[in-house]
Amino acid sequence: KAGVTQTPRYLIKTRGQQVTLSCSPISGHRSVSWYQQTPGQGLQFLFEYFSETQRNKGNFPGRFSGRQFSNSRSEMNVSTLELGDSALYLCASSLGFFGAEAFFGQGTRLTVV
Amino acid sequence: DQQVKQNSPSLSVQEGRISILNCDYTNSMFDYFLWYKKYPAEGPTFLISISSIKDKNEDGRFTVFLNKSAKHLSLHIVPSQPGDSAVYFCAASAAGANNLFFGTGTRLTVIP
Question: pLDDT tens digits, residue range B79-93?
């Protein structure tokens, strides 16, 4: 069974640009959650999508957005990049019910210069 | 506001001894707690969980203890092995919500 796949693995962008990250969940999983990991902040929840609908949202500015497609693949977009957006972005997939185990991808390392 | 806190950024333990990783939380609505392990360049992997109706859950060398009144949980690894060296994250969720609140992690180093 293939795991969670995130692309690209590494990305360098310039301040002010926008970026799109992709996540392919485990087959059969309908929930995809996105997290931002920065040193000293741990993993911060961005949002969760379930069956193409945003079901939960963390405390991030509107520059951070996402969507989920009918095949459960999800994309995350960050517009007007800031230096502080440099982080590891992790995606997790699960079956979507409370307590279901979340499986993480390897993450996308975004560097904003 | 960090609702899940891991106040020890690092811990070093001799191989064969016990490793105790601690976690505190502030939100009394949390009722499901998990520990994840993370190696460099990999995503976190699930280790063990506990629901608020229990105070202990054991899986092989790993035991999680939950003290609801103190809003505190701990992960015990006995005996510790060099392969356990990783960053450990504590996470929590509230009933009805599928998002996890993570702590900042504790880097465990097991010295051979």
Answer: 999 999 999 999 998
